[in-house]
Specification:
Structural class: alpha+beta
Signal peptide: 1-23
Number of domains: 1
Low-confidence stretches: 18-24
Protein name: BACON domain-containing protein
Largest sheet: 4 strands, antiparallel
CATH architecture: Sandwich
Keywords: Signal
Length: 131
């Protein structure tokens, strides 16, 4: 009798634990990336322009593969979701117009620290005139 009662208690405890683990599912907010502009233009003298953006995700970054521009990201809000992408273009001495793409990305961290589970990209075109 004691064994049967104990097995019922263990079965009930297992059911309660299973229900509790199902109820603890994490709500995953979809990745979101809003950019104030998708195009930046410079004259031949170069200079600096800023692009505002906000996102939901674990972190964001900007990358470019052009030698004539430099990008930096600045945080604009206390919670870190509002940022400013600073784009600096060198003087154009080539005599030809040029263009480049900056990829702005927002990522969600995976189960392992530093791993990426999801990624969302937006492209910003940078143009510079020859004159």
């Amino acid at each position: 009798m004691k064994r049967k009662f104990l097995s019922y208690i263990l079965l009930a405890a297992g059911v309660v634990m299973a229900l509790a683990s199902c109820a603890k599912e994490e709500v995953i907010i979809p990745l979101h990336l809003t950019v104030s502009t998708f195009e930046v233009r410079f004259d031949a003298a170069g200079g600096n322009q800023k692009v505002d953006y906000c996102y939901s995700g674990s972190w964001s970054e900007a990358s470019e593969e052009c030698e004539w521009i430099d990008t930096k990201v600045f945080i604009r809000s206390d919670d870190g979701t509002m940022k400013e992408l600073s784009i600096t273009a060198e003087e154009n001495t080539t005599g030809e117009p040029r263009e480049c793409e900056i990829t702005l990305s927002v990522m969600r961290e995976g189960k392992q620290p530093g791993s990426i589970a999801e990624r969302l990209d937006r492209t910003i075109k940078v143009y510079q005139s020859a004159e």
